[in-house]
Every structure is written in C-alpha cells, then in structure tokens.
Design brief:
With 289 residues, this protein is mostly beta strands. The protein is built from two helices and 22 strands. Strands 5, 11, 12, 14, 15, 16, 19 and 20 form an eight-stranded antiparallel β-sheet that branches. An eight-stranded antiparallel β-sheet has the order 6-7-8-9-22-18-17-13. Strands 1-2-3-4 form a four-stranded antiparallel β-sheet, covered by helices on one side.
Length: 289
C-alpha cells in the first residue's frame, strides 16, 4: 500500500486533511490554535503559524518538491548522517531521511493541539524512523531513530529555517561563550563571545551547546524560542550573499529572510546505537512578544 493511500485510509480528525500542496501529498492542519503543512515526502514540515501570528518557518519560493527532492526551507529531517558524514565520504548530503516518502501512522486531536505521527517506509532496513509533530499554540517535533539488526553510529539534526525580517538585525541568545567548529574555515575550532550572537557574513557553525536559544527579531518585534531535547550541538547557518548565488533552489535576494538554528547530534557528538536501540532528538518552538 503506498503512502498516500495509507494516509487516506486513516480516519482523520476535524481540521486535519490530506491535500495536494505544491503538487505533492501533504497533511494540512487547520485547527483554532494553529495552521501547519507536513509533506509526506521527507516527513517535512513546511509551515507552522499559531493563531494570530505569521509563520515561524521560511520556505524558499524556488524549492523543488516531490519524491527524492530535498525541500528548501521548513524543517528538513537530517540523518542518519550530517553533511557529508563524519569522514566526509557520503555523496548524499545530510542523509536519506529527507529523500524518502514517509507514512502517516496516526493523526489525532489532543485538547487544542493536533498530533501527527509519521514513519519511514518498512523497507528502510538498517534504520527506522518515526517523527511526531504536536501542532498548536506551540510546535513540538520529536524524531526517533532506531537501529535495525546491526549497531550504528548516527548523526541527526532538525535543520529548521526560521523566518526573520532581516537576518542582519537579529540577536541570538543562549550560545554565549560556547566552543564551536567553523565550517566556513575548514571546521576550525573557535569560541563565541559572551554577548548575543549577531551574524555579519556567511555563517556555518557547529556550536557545543544544547540549551534553549532565543532569536530576537528586532524588526518584526517578536522572539522565536527554541527549546531542544536529546541534542548535543546547535548549528547556526546562513549562506549570506557570498554563497547564495551557488544555490539553485534559493533566490539570490532571499538570504536575509531566514536563519537556521538546528538542534543536532553531529560530528564528535554522534550517537552510537546497539541493535534495536533508539535515540530521540526533539525541539519545541514558541513565539513571544
């Protein structure tokens, strides 16, 4: 049974619909507390807007959609490796989780929240995954990876594109004085300062921090709060005008509209799983004023 027919066979609660979005199967949530869109390809959340708020997530107008495509924006599920892998040998960047069609396992209402659970296809033998989205006044995402018959060393991340008014006018708090690897300088080791982080150029940092991060969006007069769990690193990424021209699915003028703040287990903070063992990587987002 294919994914779309599996989803269609479920009894979906009020406010949860299976629809075509950008020409592909997606779950559209429209409940009083929030609206959201989850594509079955990659179990990819591309939109979450709590009632009365603009979208937390940024989505590229030039993104590709469909089976095997990596959607540019929203929350890509990265794994079971990060980037080219720890040894740099992987040709598929950021793993295969975002390149397969997931199955909708369940959809339910819990108070004011809609709760969706999706799972990787049954033929994903070496590793299986489930992801649970709790969609309401806050957004929670929990990705669980489970080893198959062999032990595995996994990396994973929630590659969240947060929508901001202008990335040059945001302040990122919660990473002060943390050590990091700078991927724009060949993974050179460095240390952040004691003040809020403000981006001034192309940024790709793997920060040794796993606590709450607050992004103050000065021009939009709001704060985006990311509270992770099961994580070890926080990735901070924006291509800036220096690198955006090499990205076909991202308009050259769009780089100021987002910042990626990614909870991760990556590089030296990989997770070793024995056969049948699991690890859950999660995050909760809220918007404050």
């Amino acid at each position: 049974m294919n994914t779309s027919s599996t989803a269609a066979s479920l009894s979906l609660p009020d406010g949860v619909l299976l629809e075509q979005v950008h020409g592909t199967d997606a779950i559209v949530v429209d409940v009083p507390s929030a609206r959201a869109v989850v594509h079955l390809d990659g179990a990819h959340l591309t939109s979450w807007a709590p009632a009365g708020e603009s979208d937390l997530l940024w989505l590229s107008p030039d993104s590709a959609f469909g089976l095997g495509e990596a959607i540019r924006g929203g929350i890509p599920l990265v794994g079971p490796w990060f980037g080219p892998g720890r040894d740099g040998s992987m040709t598929v960047k950021h793993g295969w989780l975002r390149n397969v069609r997931w199955e909708l396992v369940s959809a339910a209402l819990d108070g004011d929240d809609a709760v969706l659970e999706l799972a990787t296809p049954q033929d994903a033998a070496e590793l299986s995954g489930t992801v649970v989205f709790r969609i309401g006044a806050e957004l929670s995402v929990d990705l669980t990876l489970t080893a198959g018959a062999r032990s595995l060393e996994i990396e994973a991340a929630l590659h969240t594109y947060l929508a901001v008014d202008d990335v040059r006018r945001i302040a990122i708090q919660g990473l002060e004085n943390a050590e990091y690897l700078d991927n724009t300088r060949g993974l050179a080791a460095d240390v952040l300062g004691g003040e809020a982080l403000r981006l001034t150029g192309s940024t790709d940092r793997i920060v040794d921090a796993h606590g709450e991060v607050t992004i103050t969006d000065e021009l939009a007069s709001r704060r985006l709060v990311s509270t992770p769990r099961g994580t070890a690193k926080t990735i901070v990424w924006n291509p800036w005008d220096e690198l955006v021209t090499g990205m076909a699915d991202l308009p050259d003028s769009a780089w100021p509209e987002f910042v990626c703040i990614e909870p991760a287990v990556a590089k030296g903070a990989f997770v070793a799983l024995e056969p049948g063992a699991s690890h859950t990587l999660g995050v909760t987002y809220r918007i404050e004023h």
